[in-house]
Amino acid sequence: MVTLVVTMGKGSQDLYSQKLAENLDVPKIYTDTYQRCGELFNISFFSRASAKAAFHDFRFIRTLNKLDSVVHLPNQHLGRYGFSLKVPYIITVHDLIRYFDLKGHDVLIHRPNFRDKFYLSLDYKGIEKAIKIIAVSCATKHDLIRHLGIPGERIAVIHEGIGRGTLKPVRIRPLPYPYILYVGSEHPRKNLDGVLQVFARLKQGDDFGDLKLVKVGKAGGREVDFRRETLGIVDGLNLRDEVVFTEWVSDEELAAYYSNAECFVFPSLYEGFGFPPLEAMCCGCPVISSNTSSLPEVVGEAAIRMDPRDIDGLAKAVQKVLTDENLRKKMVQEGFRQAQKFSWERAARETLKAYQEVEEKLKSNKAKKQLSYLAFSFLGGNGGKAETGLRKRDWIKVKHP
Q1: 294 touches 138 (CB < 8 A)
Q2: Are 226 and 220 in contact (CB under 8 A)?
Q3: pTM (2 decimals)?
Q4: DSSP E strand stretches across 130-282
Protein backbone atom coordinates (compact mmCIF):
# COMPACT_ATOMS: atom_id res chain seq x y z
CA MET A 1 0.00 0.00 0.00
CA VAL A 2 1.23 3.52 -0.86
CA THR A 3 0.10 6.71 0.88
CA LEU A 4 0.18 9.84 -1.30
CA VAL A 5 1.22 13.10 0.36
CA VAL A 6 -0.93 15.91 -1.05
CA THR A 7 0.46 19.43 -0.67
CA MET A 8 -2.03 22.27 -0.40
CA GLY A 9 -1.11 25.37 -2.39
CA LYS A 10 -1.44 27.05 -5.78
CA GLY A 11 1.93 26.22 -7.31
CA SER A 12 2.51 23.80 -10.17
CA GLN A 13 4.03 21.18 -7.87
CA ASP A 14 1.02 21.47 -5.55
CA LEU A 15 -1.23 21.02 -8.58
CA TYR A 16 0.64 17.82 -9.43
CA SER A 17 -0.14 16.20 -6.08
CA GLN A 18 -3.74 17.45 -6.07
CA LYS A 19 -4.48 16.11 -9.56
CA LEU A 20 -2.96 12.74 -8.70
CA ALA A 21 -5.11 12.69 -5.56
CA GLU A 22 -8.24 13.23 -7.67
CA ASN A 23 -7.37 10.31 -9.93
CA LEU A 24 -5.79 7.77 -7.55
CA ASP A 25 -7.77 5.55 -5.19
CA VAL A 26 -5.05 5.27 -2.54
CA PRO A 27 -4.68 6.54 1.04
CA LYS A 28 -3.79 10.24 1.19
CA ILE A 29 -2.41 12.65 3.74
CA TYR A 30 -2.93 16.40 3.21
CA THR A 31 -0.40 18.98 4.36
CA ASP A 32 0.66 22.62 3.94
CA THR A 33 4.29 21.71 4.72
CA TYR A 34 5.59 22.41 1.24
CA GLN A 35 3.86 25.78 1.07
CA ARG A 36 5.52 26.76 4.35
CA CYS A 37 8.91 25.62 3.01
CA GLY A 38 8.56 27.93 0.03
CA GLU A 39 7.84 30.91 2.26
CA LEU A 40 11.05 30.42 4.24
CA PHE A 41 13.69 30.72 1.56
CA ASN A 42 16.45 33.20 2.42
CA ILE A 43 15.65 33.55 6.14
CA SER A 44 18.29 33.22 8.86
CA PHE A 45 19.04 29.80 10.35
CA PHE A 46 18.85 31.38 13.79
CA SER A 47 15.57 33.24 13.38
CA ARG A 48 12.37 32.51 15.28
CA ALA A 49 10.69 31.49 12.01
CA SER A 50 13.41 28.91 11.39
CA ALA A 51 13.03 27.43 14.88
CA LYS A 52 9.26 27.24 14.47
CA ALA A 53 9.69 25.54 11.08
CA ALA A 54 12.03 22.95 12.61
CA PHE A 55 9.33 22.07 15.15
CA HIS A 56 6.73 21.62 12.38
CA ASP A 57 9.24 19.55 10.39
CA PHE A 58 9.73 17.20 13.34
CA ARG A 59 5.97 16.73 13.71
CA PHE A 60 5.56 16.05 9.99
CA ILE A 61 8.34 13.43 9.97
CA ARG A 62 6.80 11.76 13.03
CA THR A 63 3.41 11.66 11.30
CA LEU A 64 4.88 10.00 8.21
CA ASN A 65 6.83 7.46 10.24
CA LYS A 66 3.61 6.33 11.89
CA LEU A 67 2.14 5.31 8.54
CA ASP A 68 2.12 1.57 7.92
CA SER A 69 2.80 1.97 4.22
CA VAL A 70 5.14 3.25 1.55
CA VAL A 71 4.95 7.05 1.26
CA HIS A 72 4.87 9.03 -2.00
CA LEU A 73 6.50 12.46 -1.57
CA PRO A 74 5.22 14.52 -4.54
CA ASN A 75 8.14 16.88 -5.03
CA GLN A 76 11.89 17.02 -4.52
CA HIS A 77 11.76 19.57 -1.70
CA LEU A 78 10.10 16.99 0.53
CA GLY A 79 13.29 14.97 0.21
CA ARG A 80 14.47 16.69 3.40
CA TYR A 81 11.76 14.76 5.25
CA GLY A 82 12.34 11.54 3.34
CA PHE A 83 15.96 11.59 4.47
CA SER A 84 14.76 11.12 8.08
CA LEU A 85 12.02 8.56 7.36
CA LYS A 86 12.12 4.98 8.62
CA VAL A 87 9.42 3.89 6.16
CA PRO A 88 10.26 3.35 2.45
CA TYR A 89 9.23 6.16 0.13
CA ILE A 90 8.83 7.17 -3.50
CA ILE A 91 9.69 10.73 -4.50
CA THR A 92 8.75 12.77 -7.56
CA VAL A 93 11.42 15.10 -8.92
CA HIS A 94 10.14 17.95 -11.06
CA ASP A 95 13.47 19.66 -11.68
CA LEU A 96 16.94 20.35 -10.27
CA ILE A 97 16.65 24.13 -10.39
CA ARG A 98 17.62 24.73 -6.76
CA TYR A 99 20.39 22.14 -7.08
CA PHE A 100 22.03 24.16 -9.85
CA ASP A 101 21.75 27.33 -7.75
CA LEU A 102 23.22 25.41 -4.81
CA LYS A 103 26.19 24.16 -6.84
CA GLY A 104 27.06 27.56 -8.29
CA HIS A 105 25.83 27.15 -11.87
CA ASP A 106 24.16 30.08 -13.64
CA VAL A 107 21.61 31.63 -11.29
CA LEU A 108 18.19 30.17 -12.15
CA ILE A 109 16.30 31.59 -9.16
CA HIS A 110 18.60 32.80 -6.37
CA ARG A 111 21.83 31.84 -4.65
CA PRO A 112 20.88 30.01 -1.41
CA ASN A 113 22.00 31.32 1.98
CA PHE A 114 23.47 29.10 4.74
CA ARG A 115 20.09 27.77 5.93
CA ASP A 116 18.86 27.09 2.39
CA LYS A 117 22.07 25.24 1.54
CA PHE A 118 21.58 22.96 4.52
CA TYR A 119 17.98 22.07 3.67
CA LEU A 120 18.59 21.80 -0.07
CA SER A 121 21.43 19.37 0.61
CA LEU A 122 18.97 17.27 2.63
CA ASP A 123 16.54 17.39 -0.29
CA TYR A 124 19.04 15.80 -2.64
CA LYS A 125 20.22 13.26 -0.08
CA GLY A 126 16.56 12.37 0.34
CA ILE A 127 16.23 11.83 -3.41
CA GLU A 128 19.20 9.47 -3.38
CA LYS A 129 17.68 7.45 -0.51
CA ALA A 130 14.25 6.96 -2.15
CA ILE A 131 13.26 3.42 -3.15
CA LYS A 132 11.82 4.80 -6.42
CA ILE A 133 12.07 8.13 -8.21
CA ILE A 134 9.46 9.53 -10.58
CA ALA A 135 10.79 12.14 -13.02
CA VAL A 136 8.24 14.32 -14.80
CA SER A 137 10.29 14.43 -18.01
CA CYS A 138 13.13 12.66 -19.77
CA ALA A 139 15.16 15.86 -19.32
CA THR A 140 14.74 15.65 -15.54
CA LYS A 141 15.72 11.96 -15.58
CA HIS A 142 18.85 12.86 -17.53
CA ASP A 143 19.71 15.54 -14.93
CA LEU A 144 19.23 13.06 -12.08
CA ILE A 145 21.57 10.57 -13.72
CA ARG A 146 24.18 13.13 -14.72
CA HIS A 147 24.26 15.35 -11.62
CA LEU A 148 23.14 13.11 -8.75
CA GLY A 149 24.44 9.82 -10.11
CA ILE A 150 21.08 8.07 -9.75
CA PRO A 151 20.97 4.76 -11.68
CA GLY A 152 18.56 5.04 -14.59
CA GLU A 153 16.68 1.86 -13.62
CA ARG A 154 15.53 3.51 -10.38
CA ILE A 155 13.83 6.35 -12.28
CA ALA A 156 10.41 6.19 -13.97
CA VAL A 157 9.51 8.98 -16.37
CA ILE A 158 5.85 9.94 -16.00
CA HIS A 159 4.79 13.13 -17.76
CA GLU A 160 2.43 15.43 -15.94
CA GLY A 161 -1.07 16.06 -17.22
CA ILE A 162 -2.98 19.10 -18.30
CA GLY A 163 -6.42 20.01 -17.00
CA ARG A 164 -8.64 20.61 -20.00
CA GLY A 165 -11.80 21.32 -18.02
CA THR A 166 -11.47 25.11 -17.86
CA LEU A 167 -8.48 25.43 -20.19
CA LYS A 168 -10.29 25.68 -23.51
CA PRO A 169 -10.93 28.43 -26.05
CA VAL A 170 -13.21 31.21 -24.84
CA ARG A 171 -14.43 34.28 -26.70
CA ILE A 172 -14.58 36.78 -23.85
CA ARG A 173 -11.68 39.20 -24.31
CA PRO A 174 -9.92 40.24 -21.09
CA LEU A 175 -8.37 43.28 -22.82
CA PRO A 176 -9.54 45.50 -25.71
CA TYR A 177 -6.21 45.59 -27.59
CA PRO A 178 -4.02 42.93 -29.29
CA TYR A 179 -1.29 41.46 -27.10
CA ILE A 180 1.52 38.95 -26.85
CA LEU A 181 1.26 36.78 -23.76
CA TYR A 182 3.78 35.51 -21.22
CA VAL A 183 2.70 33.41 -18.20
CA GLY A 184 5.05 32.58 -15.36
CA SER A 185 7.29 33.98 -12.66
CA GLU A 186 10.06 36.52 -13.14
CA HIS A 187 12.88 34.26 -12.01
CA PRO A 188 16.10 34.60 -14.06
CA ARG A 189 15.60 31.12 -15.56
CA LYS A 190 12.30 32.22 -17.11
CA ASN A 191 14.12 34.68 -19.37
CA LEU A 192 11.45 37.36 -19.17
CA ASP A 193 14.28 39.73 -19.99
CA GLY A 194 14.47 38.03 -23.40
CA VAL A 195 10.71 38.38 -23.94
CA LEU A 196 10.96 42.11 -23.18
CA GLN A 197 13.83 42.55 -25.63
CA VAL A 198 11.89 40.73 -28.34
CA PHE A 199 8.86 42.92 -27.70
CA ALA A 200 10.99 46.08 -27.79
CA ARG A 201 12.27 45.12 -31.25
CA LEU A 202 8.73 44.61 -32.53
CA LYS A 203 7.71 48.02 -31.22
CA GLN A 204 10.55 49.78 -33.06
CA GLY A 205 8.63 49.59 -36.34
CA ASP A 206 5.25 51.00 -37.30
CA ASP A 207 3.44 47.68 -37.83
CA PHE A 208 2.66 46.90 -34.19
CA GLY A 209 1.90 50.26 -32.66
CA ASP A 210 -1.15 49.08 -30.72
CA LEU A 211 0.38 45.75 -29.63
CA LYS A 212 0.94 45.18 -25.90
CA LEU A 213 2.82 42.57 -23.87
CA VAL A 214 0.79 40.97 -21.08
CA LYS A 215 2.60 39.22 -18.23
CA VAL A 216 0.39 36.95 -16.06
CA GLY A 217 1.49 35.52 -12.71
CA LYS A 218 3.26 36.46 -9.52
CA ALA A 219 6.78 37.81 -9.70
CA GLY A 220 8.32 35.06 -7.56
CA GLY A 221 9.32 34.27 -3.99
CA ARG A 222 10.67 36.47 -1.23
CA GLU A 223 14.35 35.85 -1.95
CA VAL A 224 14.63 38.90 -4.21
CA ASP A 225 12.36 41.73 -5.34
CA PHE A 226 11.96 40.18 -8.78
CA ARG A 227 9.31 42.70 -9.83
CA ARG A 228 11.59 45.64 -9.12
CA GLU A 229 14.28 44.08 -11.31
CA THR A 230 11.75 43.46 -14.10
CA LEU A 231 10.47 47.02 -13.99
CA GLY A 232 14.05 48.24 -14.23
CA ILE A 233 14.41 46.34 -17.51
CA VAL A 234 11.03 47.63 -18.72
CA ASP A 235 12.07 51.23 -18.06
CA GLY A 236 15.46 50.67 -19.69
CA LEU A 237 13.66 49.56 -22.88
CA ASN A 238 11.16 52.46 -22.71
CA LEU A 239 8.22 50.03 -22.42
CA ARG A 240 6.56 51.28 -19.23
CA ASP A 241 3.24 52.04 -21.01
CA GLU A 242 3.41 48.95 -23.23
CA VAL A 243 3.63 46.11 -20.68
CA VAL A 244 0.64 45.00 -18.59
CA PHE A 245 1.22 43.04 -15.37
CA THR A 246 -1.39 40.90 -13.64
CA GLU A 247 -0.90 38.78 -10.52
CA TRP A 248 -2.33 35.29 -9.99
CA VAL A 249 -5.59 34.77 -11.93
CA SER A 250 -8.26 32.07 -11.82
CA ASP A 251 -8.32 29.24 -14.35
CA GLU A 252 -11.26 30.87 -16.10
CA GLU A 253 -9.42 34.19 -16.41
CA LEU A 254 -6.24 32.42 -17.52
CA ALA A 255 -8.14 30.64 -20.30
CA ALA A 256 -9.40 34.01 -21.51
CA TYR A 257 -5.89 35.47 -21.61
CA TYR A 258 -4.56 32.47 -23.55
CA SER A 259 -7.51 32.28 -25.95
CA ASN A 260 -7.32 35.88 -27.09
CA ALA A 261 -3.55 36.37 -27.28
CA GLU A 262 -1.90 36.84 -30.65
CA CYS A 263 0.71 34.31 -29.55
CA PHE A 264 2.35 32.92 -26.43
CA VAL A 265 6.11 33.42 -26.00
CA PHE A 266 8.03 31.17 -23.60
CA PRO A 267 11.83 31.32 -24.09
CA SER A 268 12.63 29.71 -20.73
CA LEU A 269 16.22 28.70 -20.06
CA TYR A 270 15.30 25.70 -17.92
CA GLU A 271 12.08 23.78 -17.24
CA GLY A 272 11.58 20.45 -15.52
CA PHE A 273 8.31 20.07 -17.42
CA GLY A 274 6.62 23.33 -18.43
CA PHE A 275 2.85 23.72 -18.08
CA PRO A 276 2.25 27.13 -19.76
CA PRO A 277 2.95 26.09 -23.39
CA LEU A 278 0.49 23.18 -23.09
CA GLU A 279 -2.07 25.43 -21.41
CA ALA A 280 -1.76 27.87 -24.31
CA MET A 281 -2.22 25.04 -26.83
CA CYS A 282 -5.37 23.87 -25.03
CA CYS A 283 -6.81 27.34 -25.56
CA GLY A 284 -5.91 27.62 -29.24
CA CYS A 285 -2.96 29.98 -28.82
CA PRO A 286 0.12 29.65 -31.08
CA VAL A 287 3.26 28.92 -29.05
CA ILE A 288 6.85 30.06 -29.51
CA SER A 289 9.06 28.14 -27.10
CA SER A 290 12.71 27.63 -26.31
CA ASN A 291 14.52 24.49 -27.45
CA THR A 292 16.13 23.71 -24.09
CA SER A 293 15.64 21.25 -21.20
CA SER A 294 12.23 19.53 -21.20
CA LEU A 295 10.42 21.85 -23.59
CA PRO A 296 11.12 20.01 -26.86
CA GLU A 297 9.55 16.79 -25.50
CA VAL A 298 6.56 18.75 -24.13
CA VAL A 299 5.71 20.98 -27.11
CA GLY A 300 6.78 18.52 -29.81
CA GLU A 301 6.41 19.87 -33.34
CA ALA A 302 3.39 22.00 -32.43
CA ALA A 303 5.44 25.03 -31.38
CA ILE A 304 8.16 27.10 -33.02
CA ARG A 305 11.24 26.16 -30.99
CA MET A 306 14.09 28.66 -30.76
CA ASP A 307 17.37 29.20 -28.97
CA PRO A 308 16.16 31.26 -25.96
CA ARG A 309 19.19 33.57 -26.16
CA ASP A 310 18.69 34.34 -29.86
CA ILE A 311 16.74 37.57 -29.52
CA ASP A 312 16.85 38.34 -33.23
CA GLY A 313 15.59 34.85 -34.13
CA LEU A 314 12.81 35.02 -31.54
CA ALA A 315 11.69 38.43 -32.79
CA LYS A 316 11.50 37.14 -36.37
CA ALA A 317 9.52 34.09 -35.22
CA VAL A 318 7.00 36.24 -33.35
CA GLN A 319 6.66 38.60 -36.31
CA LYS A 320 6.03 35.62 -38.61
CA VAL A 321 3.25 34.30 -36.36
CA LEU A 322 1.68 37.76 -36.07
CA THR A 323 1.55 38.29 -39.84
CA ASP A 324 0.98 34.80 -41.31
CA GLU A 325 -2.62 33.73 -40.75
CA ASN A 326 -2.15 30.32 -42.38
CA LEU A 327 0.77 29.57 -40.07
CA ARG A 328 -1.31 30.59 -37.06
CA LYS A 329 -4.15 28.25 -38.04
CA LYS A 330 -1.73 25.35 -38.56
CA MET A 331 -0.06 25.94 -35.18
CA VAL A 332 -3.41 26.11 -33.40
CA GLN A 333 -4.53 22.75 -34.81
CA GLU A 334 -1.21 21.07 -34.10
CA GLY A 335 -1.29 22.55 -30.60
CA PHE A 336 -4.68 20.97 -29.87
CA ARG A 337 -3.33 17.57 -30.96
CA GLN A 338 -0.15 17.93 -28.89
CA ALA A 339 -2.02 18.90 -25.72
CA GLN A 340 -4.23 15.82 -26.07
CA LYS A 341 -1.18 13.64 -25.39
CA PHE A 342 -1.03 14.78 -21.76
CA SER A 343 -3.70 13.93 -19.21
CA TRP A 344 -3.88 13.46 -15.45
CA GLU A 345 -5.76 10.19 -15.96
CA ARG A 346 -2.78 8.78 -17.86
CA ALA A 347 -0.33 10.18 -15.31
CA ALA A 348 -2.33 8.54 -12.51
CA ARG A 349 -2.39 5.16 -14.29
CA GLU A 350 1.37 5.20 -14.80
CA THR A 351 1.93 6.34 -11.20
CA LEU A 352 -0.20 3.48 -9.92
CA LYS A 353 1.91 1.10 -12.00
CA ALA A 354 5.03 2.53 -10.32
CA TYR A 355 3.40 1.96 -6.92
CA GLN A 356 2.72 -1.68 -7.83
CA GLU A 357 6.30 -2.19 -8.97
CA VAL A 358 7.59 -0.86 -5.65
CA GLU A 359 5.21 -3.07 -3.68
CA GLU A 360 6.32 -6.13 -5.67
CA LYS A 361 9.96 -5.24 -5.10
CA LEU A 362 9.41 -4.92 -1.34
CA LYS A 363 7.57 -8.25 -1.23
CA SER A 364 10.36 -9.90 -3.20
CA ASN A 365 13.03 -8.44 -0.90
CA LYS A 366 11.10 -9.61 2.15
CA ALA A 367 10.83 -13.12 0.72
CA LYS A 368 14.56 -13.17 -0.02
CA LYS A 369 15.37 -12.10 3.53
CA GLN A 370 13.13 -14.81 4.95
CA LEU A 371 14.75 -17.41 2.72
CA SER A 372 18.21 -16.23 3.72
CA TYR A 373 17.25 -16.40 7.39
CA LEU A 374 15.97 -19.95 7.00
CA ALA A 375 19.15 -20.99 5.19
CA PHE A 376 21.24 -19.33 7.88
CA SER A 377 19.32 -21.11 10.63
CA PHE A 378 19.60 -24.48 8.92
CA LEU A 379 23.28 -24.25 8.13
CA GLY A 380 24.40 -22.57 11.30
CA GLY A 381 21.94 -23.75 13.87
CA ASN A 382 24.31 -26.05 15.78
CA GLY A 383 26.05 -23.56 18.03
CA GLY A 384 27.17 -21.50 15.06
CA LYS A 385 28.67 -24.53 13.24
CA ALA A 386 27.14 -25.88 10.07
CA GLU A 387 26.46 -29.62 10.05
CA THR A 388 27.34 -29.67 6.37
CA GLY A 389 30.94 -28.88 7.22
CA LEU A 390 30.86 -25.36 5.76
CA ARG A 391 33.08 -22.85 7.49
CA LYS A 392 31.49 -19.84 9.20
CA ARG A 393 32.46 -17.39 6.45
CA ASP A 394 30.71 -19.64 3.89
CA TRP A 395 27.31 -19.62 5.55
CA ILE A 396 27.50 -15.88 6.13
CA LYS A 397 27.48 -15.63 2.35
CA VAL A 398 24.17 -17.49 2.36
CA LYS A 399 22.69 -14.88 4.71
CA HIS A 400 23.96 -12.06 2.52
CA PRO A 401 23.85 -13.33 -1.07
Answers
A1: yes
A2: yes
A3: 0.89
A4: 132-135, 155-157, 179-183, 212-216, 243-246, 263-266
